[in-house]
Write a structure and sequence with these properties.
This protein is of the alpha/beta class. It has helices at 3-15, 18-25, 29-43, 59-85, 106-116, 129-137, 184-187, 200-211, 225-233, 243-249, 282-291; strands at 48-50, 55-57, 91-97, 120-126, 143-147, 156-170, 181-182, 191-195, 217-222, 239-242, 255-259, 267-275. The strands form three sheets. Strands 3, 4, 5, 6, 7, 10, 11 and 12 form an eight-stranded mixed beta sheet that branches. It has a two-stranded antiparallel ribbon with strand order 1-2. The two termini are 34 Å apart.
Length: 308
């Protein structure tokens, strides 16, 4: 089994189209198709169901996709490790982050990394923490800056960065706008604006109300911090957000109140997620050293940071 065959397979699996996959890999479609057929013969299994306009993964293809991501990530880490010994740091670094983490500022972090290691091609994408952690587990991201309550999911290690409290924000005309503190009882029956279920803040909020045995009504779900603030600004609901978001809410004149009277305080736990199954490469280690100064190396690699 050649790495090239796995690269072509992943491209087709992600594009769901042979022509787009060939364009992405910059190869002739006939050559890409031949590689996929060769891989299917070697594995004695059909990897795709071919339709006129698209392809879909079979069960065998789904099983291979996760392992293909891990294998390609390990191969890239091996190449990067050899380059690091030679005093180079190069390759690809795929990173994910949830918006407005507060404890880490992604633009300056990525900029500092790029200045230190211009030979590394960095790709950053924003998404909900649930999706990012799953992509880290699958080997599709080298690291994810996430906010998740509770223990690390299977296949993922969480390196803690710190915690922030959750804060209630509301329109300045709201009945709680004069209060410095609020309880869950104060907001029972209120309409809520919140993030979709994949976001860390939503998971914290759902868990907080579940622990208290209370129900709440989420009338607006968003996937963007600024949109959430816009809806609260229009008086369409209150919101529980991480403390760093309140700095943005102040610009819109929204009122912020501390949440009290909760048996288990809802905290915004920010961490860096890395895969357990794949050792961190030199580029990942270097990024983590910038994000978490003085940290110990991820298991599987020496503690000595790679050369710049």
């Amino acid at each position: 089994m050649e790495l090239r065959h796995l690269e072509y397979f992943v491209a087709v699996a992600e594009e769901r189209h042979f022509t787009r996959a060939a364009e992405r890999m910059r190869v002739a479609q006939s050559g890409l198709s031949a590689s996929i057929r060769s891989l299917e013969r070697e594995l004695d299994a059909d990897l795709f169901v071919r339709h006129t306009r698209r392809v879909e993964l079979t069960d065998a293809g789904e099983a291979l996709l996760t392992e293909a991501h891990r294998t390609l990530a390990s191969a890239a880490a091996a190449r990067d490790a050899v380059a690091a010994v030679r005093g180079l740091l190069r390759g690809n670094l795929s990173v994910g982050a949830e918006q407005c983490l507060g404890l880490i500022d992604m633009p300056p972090l990525i900029a500092a990394f790029r200045r230190a290691h211009p030979g590394v091609d960095v790709r950053l994408r924003y998404a909900g923490s649930g999706q990012l952690v799953e992509q880290v587990r699958q080997g599709r991201l080298h690291a994810g800056f996430v906010a998740l309550p509770g223990p690390a999911p299977d296949g993922v290690r969480l390196i803690p960065l710190g915690t922030e409290p959750m804060v209630l924000i509301c329109h300045p005309s709201h009945r709680l706008a004069e209060e410095e503190m609020a309880t869950l009882e104060d907001v029972l029956g209120e309409d809520f604006v919140d993030f979709s279920a994949d976001w860390g803040a939503r998971r914290v909020n759902d868990l907080t109300f579940a622990r208290a045995g209370a129900e709440r009504r989420v009338v607006v779900e968003v996937n963007d911090v600024h949109t959430l603030l816009d809806f609260v600004h229009q008086g369409l609901g209150v919101a529980l957000v991480p403390a760093p978001v309140t700095r943005k809410s102040q610009a819109k004149g929204l009122h912020a109140a501390a949440l009290t009277g909760v048996a288990v305080a809802p905290n915004w736990q920010v961490s860096v997620a890395v895969p357990v199954s794949t050792p961190a490469g030199p580029a990942t280690e270097s990024l983590l050293n910038l994000a978490v100064p003085g940290r110990a190396a991820v298991p599987g690699r020496a503690a000595t940071p790679p050369p710049s």
